[in-house]
């Protein structure tokens, strides 16, 4: 039994330990009542009682009370004085329900009696060993025996334990993550709908803006105005627009003005709708307001509901934690999710609306742009002159026809300027323009005269002159039409009234997005944001609690929870728990211990990576030499120098005399199983003055001769196993708060969750000290979700073996079990003067071999366990393995006292 496992919190299934040796110091009824009230999973009632051998009869009533609530099994460790030669007991302590182990105090002069009792109680409290010993006592004469023991203890060095615990807590908590530094995560479908601003598939065909509504009518009018302007542009841009009066009635500047007016009206209607329902949580009345403004909201789609948000958050949180992210990283990601899903209201969309069709965009659409055609003026001068020269080569007629080509080109340019598209027919709106008529006229005149002179010199036939004139005129007309079309298109592109179509599409999408995410999903988004924020804050508080727990630091019972409760009450002023209630605080167990570093930790090393001696120097060839040397100082002793009773015969080895829960491991301030010279030696009195002062004290006693300790430096899977246990326990804590998040995510969490994390850390630290975390965490109470996070902690059969956790190979244990039934392997817990009291019948003794199940599973393999006796008791937990022989007494040594005689005494 670990020093953390006291009667007020026994390990699940382990025997409840109580000490009747000092009942005179306090009410014995309180001691028994406390033992009876201790929780017993499965209803099994096992009691391991420490008593003085000469008081067994006097305490008959106390033993009877242990069975007052139903059948109970009792193993009594009766501690006798060196001068005692007989033992007296009542019928209550007879098999099969009870048995007595008689051992003597002070057998080893250099080892205090309680230092012998402590590891023995540790072994006997294990349920499998307890039951096996009780059965063996039933086969022994009178049910009374003297124990003979040989035990090997596999544990960690102080440095390895503290290092593993520190790394495990750091793996659970992680580092501080800056706000906004978390990356986007893949989220469940229900949450993804709130993040991508898309429209659910079931609403793809919904008509958000009915044509008869205010917004729909404004959009339709604007689209019609753009269509009219685009049609006018098509009528003007061709040859008909320049050479005929087909585009004479087209008023493109007026059409564009109408587009700007209608687009401004659309903006006003949409902005009015955004402002009318601009709160972050629109009400039912807002639906009517939006309907009046032409926005029709449907019912909630089937893809997302308010009731499905918290389960999606739970799955997302479990998925993040299951990927190995520490609590602070998960909290940062949930905080980012909360910020992204927080409803900001449709008023915040006005900025985007202004960017689409705000005053700046309207002014640009309504701007007056000049009409320019004809290309670069030097090029127009040269081209027109060349065509006029070609027409003037006709002899004699060329003097007239050459300049006439220039006049035609200038005339067409002048016509294009007069019919420019940026001028209203009535002249009300005119953006001005230039078509290059003058360069064409000048170039044509000069080119025509030059061509006439060239014609006189060359003297071409008349048909050649006529052909040249036809080519020149055709080219002039075609070039004029090209320049007109290009000019109109260039002006239309700069005015760009068709951009209004793209703007209207974006405005429509903006309205639909706003309708979905700011109006229809407002309540769901608020619920998601509040829930994600609540879980993020809870995870942050749990991380702070784990940090405050502090590796290697012992905290007084209840102090940590009281501090957390005060902090939360000061900050929040309210709380929610698993059912909305606040649970009373439970005593927080010490979480930090340290033991003197064993020099053999480096010798044995890691079972799979470091060097170790699989047999150990102390085992020798025949086991015998080693067990006689186990009191060697190099092994150290973890059991402390405060366990002896000293000069006070009434001092309770359970601690405070007024504490009915006393421990066989010494006073309350000495519950550190390993001791550390650097720890505080605070007493209950100093704790009353300073509630934050830790308990603990130094200890350096030798181990009893029958106990050999082997310390490892930690196996390769120790830290990962501890982190997995802590993560799985944290998810179980979260499982109890989702109902509160669903009910009221805005309410602050109850400090009870931080208390549970403290208990989780204490339990993990307890199992680290008890059996190097080889045993799995206790199963949670109540029904569990079959799809919950139970897979994060390996099943008992799948957990790493003890060698990969402690770094100590199990070879020595296997060889001890294979050594046979040689009585010389064990040390009888009595003095030489008591040997004549024992039965010398070798067949009368009973033997119990026990080994933790973790030592034979996994990578250690089965080869070393071949030939192991079938009667070996495989325990679920513990760090001890060995042999316990029950040596019966002679028939005249045990006296049974009947009830009447006991009452007389």
What's the short story on this structure?
The chain is an alpha/beta fold and 905 residues long. It is built from 30 helices and 14 strands.
Key words describing this protein structure:
single chain, two-stranded parallel sheet, 905 residues, disordered N terminus, 9% strand, alpha/beta, elongated, 44% helix
Structural class: alpha/beta
Nearest-angstrom radius of gyration? 48 Å
What integer is the average pLDDT? 76
Percent helix range? 40-55%
> Quick one: biggest sheet?
10 strands, mixed
**N/C terminus separation:** 34 Å
Strand content: 5-15%
Word description of this protein:
By secondary structure, this protein is α/β, with parallel strands linked by helices. Helix content is 44%, strand content 9%. The protein is built from 30 helices and 14 strands. Strands 1, 2, 3, 5, 6, 9, 10, 11, 12 and 13 form a ten-stranded mixed β-sheet that branches. A two-stranded parallel sheet has the order 4-14. Helix 7 packs antiparallel against helix 9, helix 13 runs parallel beside helix 14 and helix 20 (522-549) crosses helix 27 (752-771). The longest helix has 34 residues, at 462-495. It is elongated. It starts with 15 loop residues before the first strand and ends with a helix. Residues 1-8, 552-700 and 782-792 have low confidence and may be disordered.
Write the layout of secondary structure elements.
Elements: E1 16-19, H1 28-37, E2 46-52, H2 60-65, E3 73-80, E4 87-90, E5 98-104, H3 113-124, H4 127-138, E6 144-156, H5 158-173, H6 189-195, H7 214-236, H8 239-243, H9 252-276, H10 284-292, H11 309-322, H12 327-341, H13 350-357, H14 359-365, E7 371-372, H15 377-391, H16 398-418, E8 433-434, H17 437-458, H18 462-495, H19 499-520, H20 522-549, H21 559-572, H22 601-604, H23 624-628, H24 684-689, E9 707-712, H25 718-735, H26 738-743, H27 752-771, H28 802-806, H29 811-817, E10 827-828, E11 846-852, E12 873-875, E13 880-888, E14 894-897, H30 899-904
Parallel strand pairs: 1-2, 2-3, 3-5, 4-14, 5-6, 6-9, 7-8, 11-12
Antiparallel strand pairs: 6-10, 6-13, 11-13
Helix pairs in contact: 5-20, 5-25, 7-9, 7-19, 9-13, 9-14, 9-19, 12-20, 13-14, 13-19, 15-16, 15-17, 15-18, 16-17, 16-18, 19-20, 20-27, 21-27, 25-27
